[in-house]
Amino acid sequence: MDGDAPAVLLRERGDKFGPAFDRAAQGVGARVIRTAVRTPNMNAVAERFVGSARRELLDHVLLVDEQHLSSLLCQYAGYFNESRPHQGLGQRIPADPVTVIDLSKPIAVKSVLGGLHVDYCRAA
Fold it and tell me: Using CA atoms, how far apart are residues 7 and 48, in angstroms rounded to an integer?
């Protein structure tokens, strides 16, 4: 690391991370948070979002400061959860109710993250 320790360290509950690991992390000022009990997919869900954010956002921008990073990640999280297709039934987002689409309406284009991504939807 470049001398900057993470403020929070999220880790599994596995035996490979023992008390010595926690003490070392706390020694550099990081708060250690263990994953919840009996949640085997907790890391997988977090890693999927982090990987997507890295590939679809962070690999394409130059960051100015932490506030810029926070703003971009908030915008991307909204896009990730509300706009982009998911591997669900009919490629619908998880919170999207089943609605009848009026195909006669034009398609509206919304630029996301300064044009890095584009969201298409039927105009209201």
Answer: 21
Domain boundaries, the chain: 40-95
Euclidean distance between CA atoms 69 and 58, whole angstroms: 9
**What is the phi/psi pair of residue 26, to 5°?**
-70, -30
Rounded Cα distance between 58 and 71, Å, is 12
Q: CA-CA distance, 76 to 96, in Å (whole number)?
A: 18
Query: What is the spatial distance between Cα 82 and Cα 95, in angstroms, rounded to a whole number?
Result: 8
74, two tokens? 């908030």
44-85-122 Cα angle (round to 5): 155
Q: What is the pTM of this model?
A: 0.61
State the pLDDT confidence band at 58, using cuts at 50, 70 and 90: very high
Q: Is the pLDDT of residue 45 over 80?
A: no
Looking at residue 79, the DSSP 8-state letter turns out to be: H
